[in-house]
Input
Amino acid sequence: MEREGLDIPIFCQHCEEPICRDVCPVGALSKGSDGVVRIDTERCVGCWSCSISCPYGAISFYDGRFRVCDLCDGDPKCARWCPTGAIQFVEASLADIPRRRVAAESLAKPKIEARAGTMTELKK
Ligand code: SF4
Ligand code: SF4
Ligand code: SF4
Output
C-alpha cells in the first residue's frame, strides 16, 4: 500500500499537567519531581484511557503493557543513536517548545480525529 506524508518521531512531552495522569482511574501515571511522567505497570488495569487521551499519541501498548517515554533516566538512547543527530536532548528552555508543540499538534490532529472516528464506530 502506498502511503503519503511524513514519518517523524513524536515523543511524550512530559506535560506540565498531563492529561494521561488525570484520566487514569487507578493513579498509575504520575509526574515525578524530575518532571518525568511514568507508568506504574503494577497498578495499571489496561483501560486505555491514557493512550486515547494523550494528544500526542505518546502512550503505546507494546509487549503486554502500556509504555511511555521515561527519558531513559536522563540518557535518551534515541538521541544517542540517531545517526543524523536529528533527535537531541536539550534543556527545555532551549527547545523552542511553543513552535514544536504547534507542529506536533498539527501532525497529531489527523491521528486524534481518526481515533475519535474509531471510538464513534465502536459505540454504535
Ligand atoms: S503521555 Fe501524552 S499527555 Fe501524558 S505527559 Fe506525555 S505527552 Fe503529555
Ligand atoms: S491504561 Fe493503565 S495507566 Fe493508562 S489510564 Fe488505564 S489504568 Fe491508567
Ligand atoms: S529511547 Fe528513551 S528517551 Fe528516547 S523515546 Fe525511548 S524512552 Fe524516551
